[in-house]
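Hypothesis: this fold can be encoded by more than one sequence.
Test: take the C-alpha cells below, design a sequence, compare later.
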C-alpha cells in the first residue's frame, strides 16, 4: 500500500473529458456515475474531496448538434454554456445518492492571482469543505479567453491542490499509467514511480487523447505533476476506471513523489498560472535587491518597460544585462505611467506628483522569483 495515498485526508481528483463523455459528445452517464460512487465512498469515510472536472465543452457538443470540438472561441464558449449545466446537474444527482451536496466553483486565472480574489476563492473552497459539501471545480470556459485556447485542467488541478493545501492529487486519464513511449507499443515500459526529473529522462509523452474531445495529453499531466510535487503534494496518475484502487492506496498507475517544502500558495499560483502582460527591465542594483535581499521593486531601479498592461496585471522582472526573467509580480501601475517614473526615487515622485506615487512598482508580497 502507498502510505502517501492512505494517509491523505484532503484529496483533489481531476478527471478529463475523454473519461466522462462519448467521442461524439454528450455525457456518458455510466462513467460519471462510476466516478461519483468512488468519490462518494471516500467522502463517506471522512476524506475531504475536491473534484476538478473537465467535460463542459464536450458535454455541450451533442445537444448543439456539433459533430466535433469547435475551433473558434465563440462556439467553444457556447458549448461550455450548455454543457456545464448538464455536467453539474449530473454530478449533483449522482452525489445526492450518497447524501452529498456539491458546490460548483468556476475559476479564471485572475481569481487566484490577484490578492483579494485569491483570498475569496480560498475561503469559498474552504467553507464548502467545512460545510461537508464537495466542491466541483472547472475553468470558467463560458467567459474565458486565453484559458480555453491555452489552459488545461491538468494544470488547473495542480494549482487547486496547492490552493487548498491538498495532501494528494489524483490525475485520471484514459491511460493507466505513465509509459516510456506509446502505451500501445510493446517496447514501451510502464513507469511505476517518479522521484525527480531524472526519472523522466528519455520518456516520450503524447498529445491529446484518442477520443478527440479533450485538450490535454500525457505531456500536460506530467507538467501538472511537476507543479504539484513542487508544492510538496504527491501525485498519482492512472486511468479513470482505476480511481477506486488508486485512492485505496493500491500500487497502480504512476506515483510522483513530492519534492521540497511548500511555498506560499498564492505566489505559487503567480509563478505557474499566469502569463506576463509585460516586462520591466532592472539595473544591477534592483536585481540584487529583488533576488538577494527579497525587496520590493522601486521605480529607481527600472531602466525600461515593455508591453501593455494595467495595474494588478502580472509582469516579468528582467535583468537588463542578460535579458533573462528573474521574477514575476503584480504591478501597481499602468504601463503608460511607468516611463515617467524610471530612475526616480519614491520620495522624489511623491514631492513632484503627489503622495499616491510614493509606492512600490511591485510589492515584495506580490512577487515570486523564477
Amino acid at each position: 500500500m502507498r502510505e502517501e495515498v492512505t494517509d491523505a485526508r484532503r484529496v483533489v481528483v481531476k478527471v478529463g473529458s475523454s473519461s466522462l463523455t462519448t467521442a461524439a459528445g454528450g455525457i456518458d452517464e455510466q462513467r460519471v456515475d462510476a466516478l461519483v460512487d468512488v468519490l462518494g465512498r471516500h467522502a463517506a469515510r471522512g476524506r475531504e474531496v475536491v473534484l476538478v472536472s473537465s467535460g463542459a465543452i464536450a458535454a455541450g457538443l451533442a445537444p448543439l448538434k456539433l459533430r466535433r470540438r469547435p475551433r473558434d472561441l465563440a462556439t467553444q464558449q457556447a458549448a461550455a454554456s450548455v454543457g456545464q449545466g448538464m455536467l453539474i446537474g449530473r454530478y449533483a444527482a449522482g452525489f445526492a445518492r450518497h447524501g452529498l451536496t456539491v458546490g460548483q466553483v468556476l475559476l479564471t486565472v485572475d481569481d487566484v492571482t490577484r490578492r483579494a480574489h485569491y483570498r475569496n476563492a480560498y475561503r469559498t473552497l474552504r467553507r464548502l469543505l467545512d460545510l461537508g459539501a464537495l466542491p466541483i471545480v472547472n475553468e470558467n470556459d463560458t467567459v474565458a479567453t486565453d484559458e480555453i485556447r491555452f489552459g488545461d485542467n491538468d494544470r488547473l488541478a495542480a494549482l487547486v491542490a496547492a490552493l487548498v493545501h491538498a495532501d494528494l492529487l489524483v490525475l485520471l486519464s484514459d491511460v493507466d499509467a505513465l509509459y516510456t513511449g506509446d502505451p500501445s507499443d510493446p517496447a514501451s515500459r510502464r513507469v511505476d514511480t517518479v522521484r525527480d526529473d531524472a526519472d523522466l529522462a528519455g520518456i516520450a509523452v503524447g498529445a491529446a487523447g484518442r477520443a478527440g474531445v479533450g485538450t490535454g495529453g500525457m505531456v500536460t499531466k506530467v507538467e501538472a505533476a511537476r507543479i504539484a510535487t513542487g508544492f510538496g503534494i504527491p501525485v498519482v496518475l492512472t486511468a479513470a476506471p482505476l480511481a477506486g484502487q488508486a485512492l485505496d492506496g493500491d500500487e497502480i498507475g504512476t506515483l510522483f513523489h513530492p519534492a521540497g517544502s511548500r511555498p506560499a500558495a498564492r505566489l505559487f499560483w503567480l509563478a505557474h498560472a499566469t502569463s506576463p502582460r509585460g516586462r520591466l527591465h532592472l539595473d544591477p542594483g534592483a536585481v540584487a535587491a529583488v533576488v538577494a535581499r527579497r525587496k520590493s521593486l522601486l521605480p529607481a531601479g527600472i531602466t525600461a518597460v515593455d508591453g501593455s498592461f494595467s495595474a494588478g496585471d502580472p509582469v516579468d522582472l528582467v535583468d537588463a544585462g542578460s535579458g533573462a526573467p528573474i521574477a514575476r509580480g503584480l504591478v501597481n501601475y499602468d504601463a503608460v505611467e511607468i516611463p515617467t517614473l524610471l530612475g526616480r526615487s519614491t520620495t522624489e515622485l511623491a514631492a513632484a506628483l503627489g503622495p499616491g506615487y510614493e509606492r512600490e512598482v511591485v510589492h515584495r508580497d506580490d512577487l515570486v522569483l523564477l
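Residues 73-96 form the longest helix (24 residues). Residues 42 and 191 are 26 Å apart (CA to CA).
Hypothesis status: open.
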